[in-house]
Structure formats: C-alpha cells, structure tokens
Amino acid sequence: GVKMLGTLIFEWDNGAKGATLMLQGKIAFNVDLSKMFGEGVKDAPDGNKFYAKKLTEIAKYFGFDGYLMNFECDMEE
After folding, report:
1. Angle, CA 53 vertex, CA 16 and CA 28 arms, to 5°
2. Which residues have C-beta within 8 Å of that of residue 15, sequence separation ≥ 6?
3. CA distances (Å), 28 to each of 1, 31, 75, in order?
4. Residue 1 has what DSSP assignment?
5. Strand pairing category for 41-43 and 26-28
6. Residues 26-51: pLDDT tens digits?
7. DSSP 2-44
8. pTM for the complete prediction?
C-alpha cells in the first residue's frame, strides 16, 4: 500500500541540456552530453509525447504510482 515514485533529476549544465531536450521533444542519439545540441540530436517521433509515452511504459512495467521530477538546474524560458 505504499506509493512508489520514479525520480527524474536534472542537475547542473548537463541536467539542463537533458531537460531541454525532453521538453522540446528532441532525442540525443550521441551519448556525449557536451554535444547534445549539435550533431546527434533529432526530433522525437511524437515530439514531447514521446517521453510521456516512454515514462508511462516504465511506470507501468515497474509499478510506479507516478514521478517526481526534480529540476535543480537553470532552465531557459
């Protein structure tokens, strides 16, 4: 009966880059985070719905009740 949350934490500059990609509906297929906004970035198939669908699949598979999204980085508006 205890609720369980998956946690996404975005910290420092790399966290801001990852969060920005997610919010903009982009996918980085180059794992080097310093290059996430150059080559190696493409549009996600469904934009930012892509991440919502994937996070839902993960939650269902592992039995999460939801997510805690912890943004500890500066984000541009």
Report:
1. 40
2. 9, 71, 72, 73
3. 37, 7, 18
4. -
5. antiparallel
6. 887 765 655 555 567 788 889 889 99
7. ---EEEEEEEHHHHHHHHHHHHHTEEE-S--GGGTTBTBEEE-
8. 0.73
